[in-house]
Amino acid sequence: MGNSELLASLQASFIGRDTEYPTVGGSRGPRVYLDSAASTLMLAPAYQVGHEFLQHYASTHSDLHYAARGASQAFHWAHEKVLEFVDADPEVYCAFFAGSGATAGFNRMAASLAETRPEREVVLVSEMEHHSNDLPHRHHFESVVHIPCLGEFERYGALNMERLRLLIEEHNHKINYIAVTGASNVSGAITPLAEVASLAHQVGAYLIVDASQMIAHAPVSMNDADIDVLVFSGHKIYAPGSPGVVIARREVLNRIAPCELGGGMVDDVYLEQYMTTATLPDREEAGTPNIVGAITLGAVLDLLNRIGMDKVREKEIDLINHAWQGLSSIDGVTLYGPDPADIPRTGTIAFNIKGFDHGLTAAALNDYHNIQVRNGCFCAHPYVRELLKKEMWEMDIDLDAPDADDQIERKRGMARASLGLYTTRDDIDALIDAVRDLAGRREEILATYEPVGRNGYRHTKFSPAPQDLFDPERTLANYIAAEG
Questions:
Q1: In this structure, what CATH number is given to the domain that contains residue 194?
Q2: What is the CB-side half-sphere exposure of residue 71 using CA atoms within 13 A?
Q3: Fewest CB atoms within 10 A around its CB: which of 70, 108, 252, 450?
Q4: What is the mean pLDDT of the chain?
Q5: Tens-digit pLDDT profile for residues 383-403
Q6: From residue 345, how far is each of 79, 180, 339, 426 by CA, in Å?
Q7: Owning domain of residue 323
């Protein structure tokens, strides 16, 4: 099977892609899943690899019975697939699994590098960052300086490289590292990583990259970009339930002490002392690992490597341009972040419909059109505030009203459509048509919803039946009844 044929086959092999839900008016149909920036759907062939492993399940770090030998080899294989996927020389880099997303990896690196290089008390962090690549640095460092972006108001986005150069000149050898996103989870704006790495290394600083929003959308090369540490989440790349991943230079990891202690990361233990192993990645993976998740992720990365991420990127660029052009042509719709014609972007498009709170947009897209998007500030509050600054100034809200704070929160955010490998041109057309429909029926839609809390909205005359929503208790009851 050629690359193009494999890509087409995989696009149709995602679990849950065709799950049906009801809509206002009584119809049912498959959902249009456009919430991939939050978490992607599961790639079925990779799921099957994990399921097959469970037939042979055992813990790793032994080869004296068959199942343990297979588990150990498969876990090692998953590490190899991670390094291969990001073009990381295994002699230079080490991959390890940590936590259930990117957060654990950033906390690990921030705490350790603050302790190891205390004389370098400054960290530069871009204003586009997800909280997981911002708050850990604030917690562990005396000074965190945020790098501004280009543009203003709704077009704010893309790292301001000239300001970065000036900040590096100002703080120079006090900089411990620079932390940037590979691609924004709000606007999809892509960061020129090789250029940032070159600037960082001129003053002896490291480059730490959050690749969570880039990893499933564009080629990533640790070697070419000269990245020191790269972190991503398996659940952002078609392996829900898999662990977070850290790829770091071995020389960096060898300078820092282990953060988590337990089984598997020691060579020997006495009552009086213990000896930490020098073997990587064992030293970074205390305790029994998420073996099934790691193997599932390894399978995803192997399949995507067979396709070639350049082909994945090429497919997505066409969809991004189509979505941007279609949505921007609708009166009353505001798109956020730089135009894809000016700055490369991944398939993440944040927008608002005039007169709609972001929660109302998400609810109505779901209820009327079976389109699932995210809404809010996407754990990137400072960046979203900049994008919404002009609109927030112009808000017509009585600040003395008892629910003023709730009103502000309902407006402080956006709807976000985000693409995945399974997204088709038909999905984008459905989104464009749905947004146009809502924008054209503003008064009717507003009259049929009521606010719930600070971000929610509920249709006043429609709600799904209980059996339309997943319920683990009901699933177990059905299994017990069937077995009985």
A1: 3.40.640.10
A2: 22
A3: 450
A4: 94
A5: 999 999 887 655 665 555 666
A6: 28, 15, 8, 20
A7: 3-30+308-377+413-468
